[in-house]
Amino acid sequence: MNIPCVLKENTSVLLLCHRRLGSRSRVAAPSAGQKLLSVWQMLGFLEKELLVLSESGLLRVISGARGDLLDVASNDYLGYAREPVSRATLLECAATELGAGASRLIFGTTQQHLGLEAELADWVGMESSLLFSSGYAANLGLLQALCGPGDLVVSDALNHASIIDGCRLSRAEVAVVPHRSVESVARALASKTPRRRAFVVTESYFSMDGDLADLPGLRQVCDQHSAALLVDEAHALAVFGPEGGGLCRAAGVLPDALTGTLGKGVGSQGAFVAGSQALKRWLWNRARSLVFSTAPSPLLACLTLRNVRRARADDLRREHVSSSARILRTRLLGAGLKLPPDSIGPIVAILLGDNARALRAAEALQGDGFRAQAIRPPTVPDNGARLRITVSSALDEATLERLAVCLISACAE
Hints:
The chain is built from 18 helices and twelve strands. It is of the alpha/beta class. A seven-stranded mixed beta sheet has the order 2-8-7-6-5-3-4, with helices on both faces. The chain has a three-stranded antiparallel beta sheet with strand order 9-12-11, covered by helices on one side. Strands 1-10 form a two-stranded parallel ribbon. It starts with 10 loop residues before the first helix and ends with a helix.
């Protein structure tokens, strides 16, 4: 038998290989090919499940390289991610290792990690910070390490999947409250359910609606009920606040823990949790997504530090993003398109409701040369399908106007 042929995805080839085993396969121990075929048969239900997704308009297709379309879908708000790294910058980092080789706890910490963590803590106005491999890993590790059985976690209904999964992993009691309702948070905290500790977790700038949490209100309620406030600043960093330091800094609110990402406004990769030194030491010991992961690339940490410092000083691009987003919203609302109430900033969601309609609109935008993403359940609630447009500093006045015209045409029904 030619074993490599079973690695092909064509089912007929698999069956042919199986038949070639002949009667010998009935008496001999299963071959590698038979075992692989058996495993694939065990996963045969996947084709049926994929068909269900397709018929409901929820199937995501694996895409190739992004090509030449104009980006109005990514989170590269300041436009740093697409810029090539200069030769001079690479030469400055030439002595920096590419890989850490181990987890932070084993032998993976470098001066590049420590320097970036110090800069990030200063940027968001916290005592310390700790790097994670991604925003998902940061929220997962934070919630799993802080919360446990018997605790109460009050979570906004539109919080990111990483927060939802972190809550689940913690095994704490979770109270999901209506979106941006401080009153509902207060009622949940005032409940008589016995518990050891209470936490309130929210995004500061919500990634699918582009609206803001009432951070001063949440801080006040948390203080009244002796609850910790955990804030995810993933989409606010580099966009809002003094030096782009986020909405907590803009509101003068000090959270008990803050998560931020480096792959959006900063234009790099990775994430961090900021807070007290005690929190950092606790996460170092108990955040499983940190403890059991190889440390981020020292070379990337070196390059990311440059981008953070650049973002802190880049008020010009921040203002360009802010004004462009205001102009686009005004045009879309004037044409009668439906946007989430109270939305601001670079995330512009056009509410369409129907999955198929959102897909058609995204396809029409692609025909006009723009890459826009149709967002469907479970990323958003049922009947909440939308086009999620992101405004970046790369859009000039003429391109912004052309985008508005194309959006109005694509979403009009």
